[in-house]
Design goal:
mainly alpha
């Protein structure tokens, strides 16, 4: 059975959507309540590290999905593609190095930026389009909104756009509800 069969593709996308539904609420807590997280976990002495938590919240929306995507490459016996797809990590390293010339918060900020723009987009291109030959329309349908939201969250956090952050919270919650409804509408794919 190949990944390209409709049944396996549906199971895989259902699993990715389910994962996104699970991690995104946690991500939103990291993004909107970083001070509370830091205060509860580490205390007042660490409150200056709260902005870092927000950037990890953004990463939480995408990284589990990319990690799971790597598994499908192994299942489909594209071992070399997994290594080559991993070359996207170089973008993240550049972000870390650049951020380290500014501040500790900037390390997280630019690691996040390089990850949600370059690394994730490169990985999506390499895994889905180049290796697995998934149609562009399907790739954009799954990844498009997620990538746009992640990048806009980065802008909102980095430039303190409170209005944008409120809009993004609302859009993300609506998007999650749509994903949950679609997940429940999906037939029981595992029983086929």
């Amino acid at each position: 059975h190949k990944y390209k069969t409709k049944h396996h593709t549906n199971i895989f996308y259902t699993t990715l959507n389910f994962t996104y539904i699970l991690v995104t609420p946690i991500s939103l807590i990291f993004i909107f309540f970083p001070e509370e997280i830091v205060m509860n976990l580490w205390g007042e002495n660490w409150i200056t590290s709260a902005p870092i938590i927000q950037y990890f919240g953004i990463l939480l929306q995408l990284q589990p999905l990319i990690r799971m995507s790597g598994n499908i490459i192994l299942i489909e016996n594209h071992d070399k593609a997994l290594f080559n797809g991993g070359l996207g990590i170089l973008f993240s390293v550049v972000g870390i190095i650049y951020g380290s010339t500014i501040s500790v918060t900037a390390i997280a900020q630019y690691y996040c930026l390089s990850n949600v723009t370059f690394t994730t987009i490169y990985s999506v291109w390499y895994i889905y389009l180049k290796t697995l030959k998934v149609p562009v329309k399907n790739v954009f349908k799954f990844w498009g909104v997620k990538l746009i939201l992640a990048n806009l969250f980065w802008v909102g956090i980095s430039y303190n756009f409170d209005g944008l952050m409120k809009i993004l919270a609302l859009v993300t919650i609506i998007y999650l509800f749509v994903k949950v409804i679609n997940l429940f509408k999906t037939k029981n794919l595992l029983s086929k």
